[in-house]
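Agenda item 2: zinc ion complex prediction
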Amino acid sequence: MITLSQFAKGATIPAELVPNAQITVNVLNAVFEAFPGVFLFSSGYRTPAHNAAVGGVPDSFHVKGFAGDFYPNDGNFAKYKSGVISILDRFGFELIDESKKPNAAHFHIEPQPGATIKTNILPSGSADKNSNGLAWLFFLGIAVIALRD
Ligand SMILES: [Zn+2]
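Presented output:
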């Protein structure tokens, strides 16, 4: 389980990217809860400067708040890969396997190309996100009423 603040690693997430970051945190927590005590979180939101410093590509999903990195504490990536992928599929996220990367072996997750991000499928304990959904329904209701006038 990680928090938004842990996801940002001390950086301030720009307000317009907070919704992205919250979705990614929810996806990471769904994975972490499915494998209790197994994964260690290593990277989430990065400022453009931080991203450049660690050699990330300029259009990295990390800069958009839409990527997270983690690795298993036993180093056995193969053991968990298919299980992680099946959880990510539920959210429209994909796994990029960086387990062969020297000195920084990890799983990287980000939205699937062209995927609709499924924010309605949430891990337990995400009540705040549900209330956001209700707020949107309320807003849409107002908009529909306004259009009918
Ligand atoms: Zn990454």
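Discussion summary: The longest helix spans residues 127-148.
Owner for follow-up: CH.
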